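S., here's the first fold you wanted:
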Amino acid sequence: MILIRDFHNLRGSHRPSVVSIGNYDGVHLGHLQLITALQARARQLGVPATVMTFEPHPSEFFSPEKAPPRLLRWREKMERLASAGVDQVFCLRFNQSFAENSAQDFVQRYLVDGLGIRHAVVGDDFRFGRNRAGNTAFLRDMGAKFGFTVTTVPTCEIAGERVSSSRIRSAIQRNDFVLAERLLGYPYAISGRVVHGDERGRTIGFPTANIILRHDNLPVWGVYAVAVSRAAGQCLPAVANIGVRPTIGGDRVLLEAHLLNFDSDLYGERIKVEFKHKIRSEKRFDSIEQLQAQIARDTEIAREWLAQIQPAAREQAGG
């Protein structure tokens, strides 16, 4: 997959193209429905299937304190789009200058002049441009003017409700990881490279694999039973804390996973942490001893809970 980072990196080889536009947070089943239509039209026309997306998410730019949690880190989103078969991702920096583009300017500069658009594939509720003034009817009018066509893809529904990033966030925050997986099409997880921490967990008997997170706006926060997957394919049960570690005065968001029955280190490895069940919220304890005792209880809860779901997982896998 080709990644085009902002407008100034566009080249003639990136156009013409068939384009879908959106935030694509989660790259969930609704997004995959759009991508399937995008790929089909791109193959018909013999041009790249291109997703246009934005960084940061527009809501993070306009109202960072009210922005919805991200389902995927930026790198994870790119990996999901590549796995889905997208040929190109055109990632635009969302800033004040970009936000001021009228709907017509957006179409002419980025789609027509930038990507040489031949066809657009969008959801039936698609809005764009300054103050979200543009809609699918306007896009079709622009297509008639500039020589491209438009396909709208109907809403994807599961259990009678729309598949959306907001519905998935709600499921995760309600500790319904089964529904979240059903809507995403894959288990909810956070991936990252294991880094050296302050080794405080090791000193109190619970060594952890640590992933530093750039953003603190996450749908998960607290202590969870998780499954940790390594690049070689090994999957290990674990208990994870995601937060700032208030008992020890932590000042950055960290994902710490204590792997059960595992005593090797994972430094430098890229791992995937799949969230299975929330045990409790993060809290500040009055002493390290209280924290240590609680972690021991959390570990036993995680061990028992993961033991219950392992037979079901083997049955689904046909084992």
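And the second, which I think is the more interesting of the pair:
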Amino acid sequence: MTRDYDRSAEDIGNIVGLEHVNVRVPDQRLATLFYVSGLGLTRDPYLVTGVANMWINVGRSQFHLPTGAPQRLRGRTGLVLPDLDALERRLAAVREPLAETEFGYEAGPGRIDVTCPWGNRVRCHAPDARFGPITLGMAYVELDVPVGAAGGIARFYDRLLNAPAEAGEADGAAAALVAAGHRQSLVFRETDAAPPAYDGHHLQIYVADFSGPHRRLGERGLVSEESNRHQYRFRHIVDPDNGDLLFELEHEVRSMTHPLYARPLVNRNPAQTNNAFAPGHEDWPWAMPHAD
């Protein structure tokens, strides 16, 4: 018997992965307490293992946390974590050592909203149908943008990055919704609040068509850095209809031939402790087994 499939459901678009969010932190010890002990994530054991930077694995994505004056994402990062009850217990355990910071958290239906010691917001979701088989991962980055910007931002990603994008709605507000990999997205949500000044934080994406966006961005003078043969950067998001600047966010754009593309990342099971250890359960699979 022949089965009918919606083949378009498996389309991703040109952005094949949202790989990392980069924000500076002034204290690596407090960052370890928050990202490793509190959120239950994993420090990359192979790369950037000194005290000047830290890479934190979350499924197939990462946070990059170089030491420096704190940076704040103008929005929030959405994570899928496997056990919100365990997350809440871990967050309670780090409340005291993080008491003199901006750290905090609040539980809601199917999620916990967390604030890092320097004010970055993270929304942690339980696995559900929206995220497919993902049990641990970076599902989205949501940015707060000015009213009226969503339509032009959607056009920017659609025409210049060749990423499926549309003007829609997020949490009751107009938004640009951009596909940024398998079960990953960028969400640009309009808000009346005046955005704070851009402080240089960035995110990194992998693209299948590396030269096409580079050419189109270059024609508009938007390429901000020619990093190397596998990477370039841009930071201005403009309306392709009129060139108006809509939002500023540095994008580190990498090719699928980049040496780091699809590098396997270690993800630990945070329930494992030296006093309650179960051999063979040290690693956490970032996705459930495939179900057709």
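Why I say that: The CA atoms of residues 231 and 242 lie 27 Å apart. The chain has one domain: 13-255.

Talk tomorrow,
H.
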